[in-house]
Design a protein that fits this description.
Region (Disordered): 54-74
Distance between the termini: 27 Å
Mean pLDDT: 96
InterPro entries: DUF1272 (IPR010696)
Protein name: DUF1272 domain-containing protein
Pfam families: DUF1272
Length: 74
C-alpha cells in the first residue's frame, strides 16, 4: 500500500492524498506536478520514472490515513 506522502520532496508544497497532482517513482519518492515537469519526469533519487500518484479518498482514506512524515529538507 502506498504511504501517500504529504509533501513534495523538492519544493515542500502540500500534496493531500485526496487531491490529484502528486507524482511518484517506484520507491514512492514524491513530487508535485511542477517539480516533476522540471525534473523531466525522472526521479532525482533513483533515476526512475515519475508517474501520476493515485488519490485516496473517502472511507479508504479514513481507514488508511496518509503519512504525516514530511520529506522536504528545505
Amino acid at each position: 500500500m502506498l504511504e501517500m506522502r504529504p509533501d513534495c520532496e523538492r519544493c515542500g508544497v502540500d500534496l493531500p492524498a485526496d487531491d490529484p497532482g502528486g507524482f511518484i517513482c517506484s520507491f514512492e519518492c514524491t513530487f508535485c506536478a511542477a517539480c516533476a515537469d522540471a525534473l523531466d519526469e525522472q526521479c532525482p533519487n533513483c533515476g526512475g520514472e515519475l508517474m501520476d500518484r493515485p488519490t485516496r479518498t473517502g472511507a479508504a482514506l479514513q481507514r488508511r490515513p496518509a503519512s504525516t512524515e514530511r520529506k522536504f529538507k528545505g
